[in-house]
Design goal:
This protein is α+β, with helices and mostly antiparallel strands. Helix content is 47%, strand content 22%. Strands 1-2-3 form a 3-stranded antiparallel sheet.
Length: 88
Amino acid sequence: MKEILDALNKGKKGRVRIMNGALWVDFRYLGRRVRAHTGYSPTPENAGLARRSLDEIMKRIGEGTFEFAGVFPDHPQRFEFARLEKGR
């Protein structure tokens, strides 16, 4: 599975990782590190789904249209990012 993740992440912003037996996305947003559980088990198919989701997130960050709480409504950092998003 490591080889699959390495190939999916190569040359891309952010990473899909396995932590605690599950797939997570790991990226930077507004100067902060974000690690979020995807809800997917670590299979090659799910890794591809997670990578496509992360690619969309990174695209929206680049465009300035990403809203953290809209994608991660239950994430512990959602209030911090809501505050930061208002200030940008």
